[in-house]
Design goal:
Length: 187
């Protein structure tokens, strides 16, 4: 599979250690979190899903140790409606599309965190970049994909000062853009 993740980032992940992989996926999930938590909060019966996502975002930042329950979290996550789509079903609403990508990023991040597998981390980054490319196409004048590339590079650079702050701010910007786009979209 060709990936959108820059080759230098993928190489660093493949040559790095588990801490590098865990930091990379934690930052990716942090940037996507508002697109799940914010868009699904208050949705009937989704409190447990929102709680699992928010708890996972928090726990992923403990990069010095893999999550002991990463596999169980994946099993629960795979029961989320966003990830149970049948092949012939297509998500067409704006909120659903970005909630799907946020869930997919977490779906790849959890096993990457648990095992330190760089290929899962690359898949996580690819999903985030795909979502941001779509957002750039749908909201004129944005540079979300370029921002995601930059922050992915920062997360493997070894100098990660400000990474959490930049990731949380990027997540807020994405959330505002999706809300603005969904408000202007029919259905």
């Amino acid at each position: 599979m060709e990936t959108l993740v820059e080759e230098a980032v993928a190489t660093t992940l493949r040559n790095g250690d588990g801490d590098t992989v865990r930091l990379y996926v934690a930052a990716c999930v942090e940037r996507m979190a508002p697109l799940f938590v914010g868009l699904r909060a208050g949705g009937g019966g989704r409190e447990g899903d929102v709680d699992l996502y928010a708890e996972s975002v928090h726990d992923l930042w403990h990069v010095d140790r893999p999550l002991s329950d990463a596999e169980e979290r994946v099993r629960v996550l795979e029961r989320f409606p966003e990830l149970r789509q049948k092949d012939d079903e297509v998500i067409t609403d704006v909120v659903g599309i970005y909630a799907f990508f946020a869930a997919l990023v977490l779906r790849h991040a959890l096993p990457a965190n648990g095992s330190g597998n760089p290929e899962d981390a690359v898949s996580c980054g690819h999903a985030a970049l795909t979502a941001m490319g779509m957002l750039d196409q749908n909201v004129v004048g944005t540079g979300f994909r370029a921002q995601e590339h930059r922050l992915q590079s920062l997360s493997v650079s070894g100098d990660t000062a400000g990474l959490w702050e930049a990731s949380t701010e990027a997540g807020r910007e994405r959330f505002r853009a999706v809300l603005g786009h969904s408000a202007g979209s029919p259905g």
